[in-house]
Amino acid sequence: MTTATTPRSAAQAKIASEAQKAATSPYVVLYQLDARVLGGDVYCFTQSNRESAPITYGGVEYTPIDLEADGFEWTGAGTLPTPRVRIANANRAMSALVGTYDDLLGATLTRIRTFRRFLDGEPDADPGAHFPLDIYRVERKVALTKTHIEWELSAAMDQEGKMLPGRQVLRDACTHTYRRWTGAGFDYSQATCPYTGSACFKASGDPTGNSAEDDCGRKDSDCKKRFGETAVLPTRAFPGVARVRI
């Protein structure tokens, strides 16, 4: 099973059209906290003051939790926003993650903004219909109390202190982030690889009818299986780079 995504230009038109209406569908804000770089998982949630039951978007289920977030607004002052996120700690679930994964520092938080009409199960459901993604890194833990945990975020594009080159030049391996199977559909929210086809392949390159086994081996041959032997491949590998001998 796969979840089809509207081409980005059409999806942008849909979200813009809805936003310009005098009476819009209810506004929905979703969050994905990606702690895989720390050895954790991807944790998906939404604000409980707006939702009382889990909601699904793009095949991903978002659990309502007590959450406050502010500081995402961009200004013309030249400085990047440093939002803060406060999550209730009443059941100690978040403090357990903090203790296990080094305060979650370095994890990625993605904010997804859309309208209820585009959620799964709605007549106009479309996982591609959302505002531009807000992607931030967890920069520091500001507070940890019995009632809440607060983090300060930094924009993923904040280049202060970044060393060059910005990405590794690999001759034989693509560095795209591939789609992720959720059990109910494919999650494209973190994917940079543009592949949205129904054909699935294992990391070995062998075809499979099991969506849960779908993975990319990062080679040119894997790209050709998905996009075609004669297609212009969207790979991030650099096959023209010669090996350097020292």
Which features would summarize this protein structure in a list?
246 residues; alpha+beta; nine-stranded mixed beta sheet; two-stranded antiparallel ribbon; 3 helices; 11% helix; 27% strand
Written overview of the protein:
There is one protein chain. The protein is α+β, with helices and mostly antiparallel strands. Helices cover about 10% and strands about 25% of the residues. It has three helices and 13 strands; from the N terminus they run αββββββαβββββββα. It has a nine-stranded mixed sheet with strand order 3-4-2-1-7-8-9-6-5, with no helix packed on it. A two-stranded antiparallel sheet has the order 10-11. The chain is globular and about 55 Å long. The model has no long low-confidence stretch (mean pLDDT about 80).
